[in-house]
Every structure is written in structure tokens, then in C-alpha cells.
# Entry
Amino acid sequence: MTRLTVSTDARLTVVDVTDAVREAVADAGVDGGERVCTVFVDHTTAGLVVNEAESRLLGDVESFLGDLVPDEGWDHDTLDGNADSHLRALLLGNSVSVPVVDGDLALGRWQSVLLVECDGPRDRTLRVVVG
Ligand code: ZN
# Structure
């Protein structure tokens, strides 16, 4: 398992982590054949998805999640004011699985691994496991 740290620079933002994950898979030194890479974000206010890393689309994702979940009015806000962040993250999930073929991620042409920060800016930890 490899741990990656990703710094985010806004409260709600999407970060393309494909290159870092690909490097972690290469460093894992798996031999040929078919395997699975699991990427897991160990936080409750960030999510992981596989989608297209096109800059306008990433902005649309941020707008979409912002519009989908109201910023205020949640019970959890009385504790630490970030219920909207938790709710956005739970819509996304906290892990993705990507096939690995001959030691490299087998992503589709337009697919990238995207970390969706819902309560930044922060340093986030990702765990990359190839099994
Ligand atoms: Zn909270």
C-alpha cells in the first residue's frame, strides 16, 4: 500500500490525481498480468470518482455539487459547520477501483481519477492498494 498526500486549495474543488496514482502503481512493482488498484480516501468530507478531467467539466462538477446540497440548515452544523461537506462527499463515495494491466492503470481514453474536495483547503491522504 502507498499513501499519497494531496493538498487542495479551495473548499469545493476537484483535483486530478491520476498521475500520482499511476506512479504509486508503478512503484508497487507488480509484475505482468491483471490486477486491481483500489484508491481510498480516508476522510469523511472528500470523495473519489473516475471521470473526465476537462477544466470546464470540473467547474461544472463543483457547481453541481454546490447546487445539489444547500450550504446551511443541517443538524450537524451545530457541531462543526460542515454538514454540506459530508453530504456532498457521501454522494460520491470514498474509493474507486481501476483495472491494472501489465503494471499500468487501464483507464478509458477520457477517464481520470479525481479527488473531490468538499471541505478544503486541506491536505488529504489517499491509500493506493494494488492486489
Ligand atoms: Zn463534520
Notes: Strands lie at 2-7, 13-16, 34-41, 46-51, 95-101, 104-105, 112-117, 123-130. The longest helix spans residues 55-68. The CA atoms of residues 22 and 104 lie 7 Å apart.
